[in-house]
Specification:
Distance between the termini: 37 Å
Helix content: 25-40%
CATH superfamily: Aconitase, domain 4
CATH class: Alpha Beta
Largest sheet: 4 strands, antiparallel
Number of domains: 1
Structural class: alpha/beta
InterPro entries: 3-IsopropMal_deHydase_ssu, Aconitase/3IPM_dehydase_swvl, AconitaseA/IPMdHydase_ssu_swvl, IPMI_Swivel, LeuD
Protein name: 3-isopropylmalate dehydratase small subunit
Subunit structure: Heterodimer of LeuC and LeuD.
Order of helices and strands: EEHHEHEHEHEEEHHH
Number of helices: 8
Keywords: Amino-acid biosynthesis, Branched-chain amino acid biosynthesis, Leucine biosynthesis, Lyase
Radius of gyration: 20 Å
GO cellular component, one term: 3-isopropylmalate dehydratase complex
CATH architecture: Alpha-Beta Barrel
C-alpha cells in the first residue's frame, strides 16, 4: 500500500552512469520474494561490493567499494537519486523499484527513463523526474561541488529547489494526483464503484440470461 507523496527534502545521491539497467539495480539472485521489502541492502550490489554476494550473506563479510556513491557520507539517509539517460532499462522486473524504495529513495531524477520502469515507479509511489540533459549536467556539477546541499521536491508545485536553483518539472496530471493521494489501480477502481454497480444492474436487466 502506497503512502501519500509529500514534499521531499534531501541531499542528492549522484550516480553518474548512463543506461543503468534493472539487473544492476537489483541482481537476479536476490529476487527471492514478493514481499516488496528487504531488497534495499542488495541494491546496486555488484557496484557496492567487490565480492560476489548472495541472499543471506552478512554485510560485515562483504568487501565494500568505497568509491561508490552509496558509500559516501552524504548519501546516508538521502532520498533523491540523480542519474543519467535511460535509467531503468533492461527487464521489466518490479523488484528494481522495490529495492530503491527499500533503500529509502523516493525521487529519481534523470534525462530519461525506460518506459516500463517509469510506470513501475509511479505504481509504487516513487516519483521519476525527467529533466533536460543540460539541467542534469548542472545538478551533477552542483552535487560534486556542494555534496551536503539539500534539495526540496514539491510535487504540488512541480518544483525542485536547491540553494541556488529553482527548477520546474512536468508530471502527467493523473499520475501526480495518484501520487499525492496514494492511489493505486485498485483504489482508483474502487472510486468508481457506483458507476460499476450501475452498469452491472443495467446489464443484468438488459441481458438477464447472462446471469442465470
Amino acid at each position: 500500500m502506497n503512502t501519500p507523496f509529500t514534499s521531499v527534502r534531501s541531499r542528492l545521491i549522484a550516480l553518474d552512469r548512463a543506461n543503468v539497467d534493472t539487473d544492476a539495480i537489483l541482481p537476479k539472485q536476490y529476487m527471492t520474494s514478493l514481499s516488496r521489502t528487504g531488497f534495499g541492502q542488495y541494491a546496486f550490489d555488484n557496484w557496492r561490493y567487490a565480492d560476489i554476494g548472495y541472499p543471506g550473506k552478512a554485510l560485515e563479510e562483504r568487501e565494500p567499494i568505497r568509491s561508490f556513491c552509496l558509500h559516501q557520507p552524504t548519501a546516508q539517509g538521502a532520498r533523491i537519486l540523480l542519474g543519467r539517460e535511460n535509467f531503468g532499462c533492461g527487464s521489466s522486473r518490479e523488484h528494481a523499484v522495490w529495492a530503491l524504495s527499500d533503500l529509502g529513495i523516493s525521487v529519481l531524477i534523470a534525462p530519461s527513463f525506460a518506459d516500463i520502469f517509469r510506470n513501475n515507479c509511479f505504481k509504487n509511489g516513487m516519483l521519476p523526474i525527467q529533466l533536460s540533459a543540460e539541467q542534469i549536467d548542472a545538478l551533477f556539477t552542483t552535487a560534486a561541488q556542494n555534496p551536503w546541499d539539500e534539495w526540496t521536491v514539491d510535487l504540488e508545485a512541480c518544483t525542485l529547489t536547491g540553494p541556488d536553483q529553482h527548477i520546474h518539472f512536468q508530471v502527467e496530471l493523473e499520475r501526480r494526483r495518484r501520487l499525492l493521494l496514494a492511489l493505486d489501480d485498485i483504489s482508483v477502481t474502487e472510486q468508481k464503484m457506483d458507476q460499476i454497480q450501475t452498469y452491472e444492474q443495467q446489464r443484468r436487466a438488459q441481458e438477464p440470461w447472462l446471469f442465470s
